[in-house]
Amino acid sequence: MSSPVRLIALGFAFTLAVPVYAASLSNTPITETGRETLSTERSVLSDSERARARTWNLSESEWQRYQQLMQGIRGSISPGTISPIEVLGIHARDVAERQRYAERWAQTMHEDAERILAFQHAYDAAIRRLYPNEPLINPALLPDPTEKTGSLEPGDRVMFFTRDECPVCDALFGRLIQKIDTIAGIDIYLSGEQGGDDEVVRDWAKSHAIQPEWVRSRRVTLNHDAGALEQLTHGEGEFPSLMRRRGEVVSPLSPADL
Predict the structure, then answer these.
(1) Which stretches of the chain are assigned E, i.e. beta strand?
(2) Which domains does the chain have, with CATH numbers?
(3) Of 38, 112, 227, 229, which is the most exposed, with the fewest CB atoms less than 10 Å away?
(4) Cβ(112)–Cβ(210) below 8 Å
(5) 47-81 burial by CB neighbour count: b if 16+ within 10 A, else e?
(6) Better-scored residue on pLDDT, 115 or 35
(7) pTM
(8) Is the pLDDT of residue 237 over 50?
C-alpha cells in the first residue's frame, strides 16, 4: 500500500432527578393572591423560550418541565447539547410517556439522517461538477511505500474502506470503533455494486450501531467509496482497508496499530 499522500479534493460528509420541592404546609397560610402570583410566574415564557419550544414541537408546560429537570442532576451530568426530548424521555413519569418521547426522538433522528445524506449527495455532485478534471489524489505526492506510519494520535482521523456483507470488514470495524473517543474521527467509505445508493449506507450504519450523535458532530462520516480506495492505492487496495489522515497527509494504517 502507499504511504502519506496530500489530498487534492476529498470531501468528508456524510447528537435527573426532577427537583422535588417539598414544603410543610400544615402551619403555613397561603393566600389566594400568593397562589395566583406563583401560577403566573410559572406560566410565563420569554419569546425566545416559546420559539425554542415550538422548534422542538413541545408545549409550554413540557418546556417548563425540561427547564426544571436541567436545574437538577441532568444538567450537571449531561452535555449542554442534550435535546429537550431526550431529557423529558429520560425522566418520563410512566411507560406511555417514555414511549411517546422515544418515538418522537426516533422520528427526529430519522429526519436528520435524511438531511445529512441529502447534503452529502449534493456535495459529491458539486465536487464532480466544479472540479471534473482534477484527480482525487495527486500521485506525485505519494511517498516511498516502505516508509512506516507509526501509531495513531488524538488529532488523527481514520479512513475505513469496507463493503457490505464482509465479516472480515465487520471484525476490523469492531476494533476501530473502540477508538472513537481517542481520535479525531472515523470516515467510513462503503463500496459495493449498489454504487451511490444512500439507502445501502443508511442500512449499513444502522446495522453497525453508528450513533446519530457521532454523525451530527462529524466524529463519524458516512461516504460512498466512489473510487477513493483505488486512487489511494493505485488499484491495489483490498477490503477492508485503513488509512490514517493527519492534517492533509494520508497514510496506510495497519490493523496492528489499532
Answers:
(1) 5-6, 157-163, 185-191, 220-224, 241-246, 249-252
(2) 5-13+137-257 (3.40.30)
(3) 38
(4) no
(5) eeeeeebeeeebeeebbbbbebbbeeebeeeeeee
(6) 115
(7) 0.49
(8) yes
